[in-house]
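Case 253 in the screening queue. Each case pairs one protein sequence with one candidate compound; here the compound is NAP. For every case the pipeline is the same: read the inputs, emit a complex structure as tokens, and attach any notable structural observations.

Predict complex for case 253.
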Amino acid sequence: MKYAVYSKEPLKEEIMIKLKGKLDYQNPDFVFSFGGDGTMLNAVNQYIDNTDKTIFIGINTGKLGFYTDYALEELDSIIDSINKGEVFCHEFSLLEYSLIKNNQVKKGYALNEVAITNPIHTQIIEVYINEKMFETFRGTGLLVSTPSGSTGYNKSLGGSVMDCSLEAIQLTEIAAINNRIFKSLASPLIIPSNNKVSMISHDSDNIYISVDGRYEEFRDVEKIEVMFSNKKVKMLGSKNYSFYNRVKKSFIE
Ligand code: NAP
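Case 253 output:
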């Protein structure tokens, strides 16, 4: 078994000693993410091409940790279980996006969301669902989240929390202007997995595209397409740990 370690801060020597000799940052079977969700999002992004064979392990070091099921004290027992082949995974869906201009296309995946914002000027975005015109949005921006991302930025915007077993994405408005003149749906919209959302901004050189909290550099984007992806991320977890435990642990307890 080969491991990779992902952490924003340097890890203590005693932790590294436990993993030493098994480290392979090119082709790890397991990626240990030490931190919170932000660290896990970056770890998944770093190994996005390895998701078929790599299992992520979230070790919480004092953050919210929606994606982190383990404490630092459990590291020995995790390694022991891996050595015994006792591995159970939770799967999280991704969304895939394409940023398009002229004949250039930049593709990628998100575990939480893709957000298109302009914090200064009113943004006008034409929204198409399956290439059919749906609405013209005016406001700060739009966000498309995965089921597991629905408890992140999406939730702060009044979006619904989606069970992670659902195969769908969610479109949520960020500070929409709704009045006599301008009208958009003004509520979150759940979109099934075989549907595509396309967004065309009227002021494309002044928008910010963020993916899982990272800035996507792609100037003058003409069209942004977002779909549910069949690609999944596997995270080590307990058989007894359900989606509702996860939500309860993060928001209610
Ligand atoms: P960040 O500081 O890393 O994260 C902000 C908070 O969101 C942290 O408490 C983080 O947990 C939590 N979080 C992240 N993903 C979550 C999920 N799927 N369910 C529940 N909570 C989650 O911020 P960032 O680096 O800018 O962006 C990372 C993510 O944070 C984004 O993908 C976005 O979902 C979220 N975010 C939220 C807002 C908002 O609510 N206004 C604004 C920006 C970003 P940890 O403490 O464990 O890291």
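Case 253 observations:
- Helices lie at 13-19, 37-46, 75-84, 153-156, 243-252.
- The CA atoms of residues 35 and 62 lie 7 Å apart.
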